[in-house]
Amino acid sequence: MKIRYSIRFNLIKLKDIEDDLRIRMRVSYDSKRINIPLSCRISLNKWDEDSESALPKYEDKFGNTSKDINREIDKYRSAMEKAFAKFELIDQKIPTPDELKHEFNEITGKKTNEEKEKIIPTNIQEVGKIFLKENKTLWSEGTYKKIKTILRHLKKFNDNLEFSHIDNIFLKNYITFLIDKQGLQNTTVQKNVKTLKWFLNWSFYNKYNDNLEYKNFKTKLKTVEPKVIFLSWDELMLLYQLEIPDTKNYLDRVRDVFCFQCFTSLRYSDVFNLKRSDITENSIQLVTVKTNDCISIDLNDYSRSILDKYKDIPFPKNKALPVISNQKMNDYLKELGKLAELNTPETIIYYKGNERKEEVIPKHDLLSTHCGRRTFICNALAFGIPPHVVMKWTGHSDYKAMKPYIGVADETKSESMKKFNMPKEKLEVEETTDTNK
User: pLDDT confidence of 399, banded at 50, 70, 90?
Assistant: First the structure.
C-alpha cells in the first residue's frame, strides 16, 4: 500500500527563550498530523523558509553550526521516511500518530519521556558520556577532545559530581582548582568554564539538569591579549631553505607541510584533509573544517613548488601532502626551529589567578602548526596586501578577528610612518607651490 504524506520543517517559539527558536518537524498524512521538535534552535534571520534549512555561517550559543543543524534535519527526515516505508511495505497499514512516533523513536534511538524519567542520570560523568556519544559524529576531533578534557578535570575535582552541586561557590572553587592544582593560565580557565557552560546548557535542554545557577556566574579573571607568534619573511625563508642533515630527514616533510601553511594560510585541520581534487591549476578550493566556509586561495610559486614535490607520491585518501598528527608535528616543529636557529627571545605574559607571569622563551620552543596560519597573515599584511583581501583567503568574517594580526604587522606600520619623514626643503617647496596656486 502507498501512504501519502508530507514532511516539513519550521520554527516554533519557546516561552523561555526570546532570541532563538526551536525547529519542528511537522508530518501530515491521512488527515493526521504529528509534530516532533528537534534538539537544535536557530535565530529567525538565520533560517531559510524556502529550503527549510539553516543559512551558512551560523553558530548557536551551544556551538552547533549550520552544518550540524542541517545534518539533524536530514537525519529526522530520513528516519521518518523509513518509518513510513515500514508501515507501507511490512505492516501494510496506516499507522496511528502514536505508532508512527514510536517507530520514529526506534529508528533514531530516541527514548520516550516515560523511559527517560525511569533511567535519567544526574551524575555529570554519566551524562558527559551521553553527551560525547550523541554528538561525536557532529563535532571536529578538537571539540571532542575539549569536552573529554573538561570531564577529566571535573572528575579529578569531584568524582561523584551531581548537577545539583553546581552553584557559584562550586564554580569559584573549581576555578581555583584549575589554577592551583592543574596549573592552567587564566585564559585557558575562561575557555574551560565557557565549554562547561555549553555542556550544562545541553544537559538542561535535554532534561538531565534542572539547576540553572551557573547561568549568572561570571569569571572575573585578569587576562592579557595573547602574543601572536609568527615567522618574519626572513625567518620563513631561512626555514624554507634550511639544509636538513640526513640524520634528521624525518623533519623534511614536516618543514614542507608547515611552510605550505605559511604560504597558504591553511589551518592544520584543512591541510590535513587537503585532497588533490581540491587543487586547481592556480588555486585551492575547499570547505574549511572548522567553520564550513567555502574558500579559494591563490597558489604562489612557493606553495605550488611544495605541491609539485609530492604530486607523484600516493598518499591515503588521495591526500595532497604527507601530514602527520598535530601533536607529533608540533613536537617536530620545535626541533626544526631549533635546528634553524630561530632563537629570538619572545616575552610571554600571562596571569595565573591574580599573579602576573612573564617568561622569556626562544621562538623555536613556541612553534606550532597554528603559527603557519599566523605567519601567512602577518606577512601578507606586512607586504601591504589589504586586510579585506587577506580575509577572503583566510575565511575570516570580520575585522575583529584580524585585529591581533594587524597590530603586529610592524613593517606595514613603519612604511606608513615614513610618509611623515618628507625633507623640510621639499615641504617648503610644496607650500610655496600651493600658495602660488
Answer: confident
The 3 state secondary structure assigned to 214-227 is: HHHCCCCCCCCCCC
* H-state helical runs in 136-264: 141-157, 168-180, 186-205, 233-240, 250-264
Kind plus residue range of the DSSP H or E element containing 36: strand 32-42
Q: Provide the residue type at 74 as one letter.
A: D
What distance lies between CA 83 and its chain's CA centroid?
A: 35
SS3 of residue 55 by DSSP: coil
Angle of CA points 50, 15, 112, to nearest 5°: 80
CB within 8 Å of 304: residues ≥ 6 apart = none
Distance, in Å, from the CA atom of 171 to the CA atom of 166, rounded to the nearest integer, reads 7
Q: Are the beta carbons of 304 and 310 closer than 8 angstroms?
A: no
How does DSSP assign 191-207, residue by residue? HHHHHHHHHHHHHHHTT
Q: Answer whether 363's CB lies under 8 Å from 337's CB.
A: yes
Rounded to whole angstroms, the Cα distance separating 165 from 160 reads 10
The predicted model scores a pTM of 0.64
pLDDT in tens, 6-31: 999 998 765 545 567 888 999 999 99
